[in-house]
Design goal:
alpha/beta, N-utilizing Substance Protein B Homolog, Chain A, Alpha-Beta Plaits, 4 domains, 8-stranded mixed beta sheet, 19 helices, globular
Length: 457
């Protein structure tokens, strides 16, 4: 199979992503050479197939089970993905004729598997294409759990807990929203340009432009038709890609020019760059992370953005002490490793990789990391805890355990001027910041601002 075939590339990405240790992002990165060899149209088709198969996997499997004469559990994993790829095109992509989806999948099967498998795939697909409309989903009123899991493609363990926490109506709305294609959201680099000036520049390139409702720096764009890195203004450092909820986390931290700030789990540095931007390049931002490779690209990114006050530092937060730094910090951001269940719109593989055990394991780690980060804040300073998950174990329960243990901290509700926290739909009864994908054009996030009590007279 030629590398320039979008369906073969999609199959390669999905098969690699099947491994629990390989995220979708990583699998796509590995396939970058294959993707770059595709035309823009074929690259868009490949992208639609990969994300679509993962978003709708359980429903596609429901169709396969209904028309396969072989037990589903006995299907070869490669055969199964070829079936999923073809069915996604037949059921969800109007621009691909059914015969084309079937024929290309048969050819793919002949070259990737064997003649017998190709015949089986042909039979299942033709039967499904002709008769899938006769199938009925589990009844919404009689079996809500099965209806959502099958019709909207989610694992049972997650939907059970969401129904228990949110109720059926909210859970259904969440699932529908998460399965939609999210917008591309940019954050203007205010060191170089104002938001409306960037918006006008994007409109001259025929993008649909909508300004974010809560973040003063965000812009949603539609109909890009090309990679963001090829948009006029990217090379000049006029913007970064960042979801609105993630932008609001840095706004809630509210760093001031001249302060010393730590981003304790900086990762690729999106929030660290925003913090530096909010500080107007004055003061110092330490971008720390355990994984040095995540920090490797930050130097080039700060240069592109014209940021001069970030210093990177490889660091295991759980082993860190104040001796690892020049002194205590005015503000510390802990954007802790989490289940990522709040960003499934962008990472649909998370649906099928995370388990309840992962949530509990990560929550235990988050408690330790929050306590470690708290030791680095100066008296009177600010500690912000954030995760891209809306699960109680990773949210309120972490904060409750922390405040019970750390009597030198209290919730900081004196956040005048932070508009996001004046919006009742973005805060809980405890004044915690919490967003969901339904109802807001942003990812699911949770954040709490804490203040270290200053006991000096």
């Amino acid at each position: 199979m030629k590398a320039a075939d979008p369906r073969h590339t999609a199959l390669t990405i999905l098969m690699r992503c099947e491994k629990k240790t390989c995220t979708l992002d990583k699998s796509i990165d590995i396939a970058q050479n294959q993707l770059e060899s595709l035309s823009r149209q074929d690259r868009n088709l490949c992208n639609a197939i990969v994300f679509g198969v993962l978003r709708h996997r359980e429903y596609l499997d429901f169709i396969i089970k209904s028309f396969s004469k072989k037990p589903f559990a006995n299907l070869d994993i490669q055969v199964l993905y070829i079936l999923r790829i073809a069915l996604f095109q037949i059921l969800f992509l109007d621009r691909v004729p059914a015969f084309a989806a079937i024929n290309t999948s048969i050819e793919l099967a002949k070259k990737q598997t064997n003649k017998g498998a190709a015949g089986f795939i042909n039979a299942v697909l033709r039967n499904a294409e002709q008769n899938h409309h006769t199938l009925a989903l589990p009844d919404l009123n009689k079996n809500l759990l099965a209806h959502i899991c099958t019709g909207h493609s989610y694992p049972g363990w997650l939907i059970k807990r969401w129904i228990r926490v949110h109720g059926g109506e909210k859970t259904l709305a969440l699932c529908q929203s998460i399965n939609t294609i999210p917008p591309i959201t940019l954050r203007v680099n205010t060191l170089k340009m104002k938001r409306k000036v960037l918006g006008a520049l994007l409109e001259t390139q025929n993008f649909g432009v909508a300004y974010t409702n809560e973040s003063p720096d965000g812009i949603h764009i539609s109909s890009p038709g090309k990679p963001v890195t090829q948009i006029k203004g990217f090379t000049q450092g006029l913007f970064q890609i960042q979801d609105e909820a993630a932008q609001l986390v840095s706004q809630i931290l509210d760093p001031k020019p001249g302060e010393i700030v730590l981003d304790a789990c900086a990762g690729l540095g999106g929030k660290a760059c925003h913090i530096a931007q909010l500080m107007n390049n004055q003061g110092r931002v330490i971008a720390a992370d355990l994984e040095s490779h995540k920090l490797d690209s930050l130097g080039a990114e700060t240069q592109r953005l014209g940021i001069e006050n970030i210093r990177v530092q490889q660091l295991d937060l759980l082993k860190a002490t104040i001796k690892d730094f020049d002194g205590y910090f005015d503000r510390v951001l802990l954007d802790a490793p989490c289940s990522g269940l709040g960003v499934m719109r962008r990472n649909p593989d998370t649906k099928w990789k995370r388990t309840l055990k992962d949530v509990l394991r990560l929550a235990a780690q988050q408690k330790k990391m929050l306590n470690a980060a708290a030791n680095l804040v100066k008296p009177g300073g600010i500690l912000l805890y954030a995760v891209c998950s809306c699960e109680p174990e990773e949210n309120e329960q972490v904060i409750t355990a922390f405040l019970q243990k750390r009597k030198d901290y209290s919730p900081d509700n004196a956040m005048e001027g932070i508009s996001a926290l004046s919006n009742a739909t973005l805060t809980t009864g405890d004044h915690y910041f919490k967003t969901y994908p339904d109802g807001h054009i942003m990812d699911g996030f949770f954040a709490v601002r804490l203040k270290r009590i200053d006991k000096t007279p």
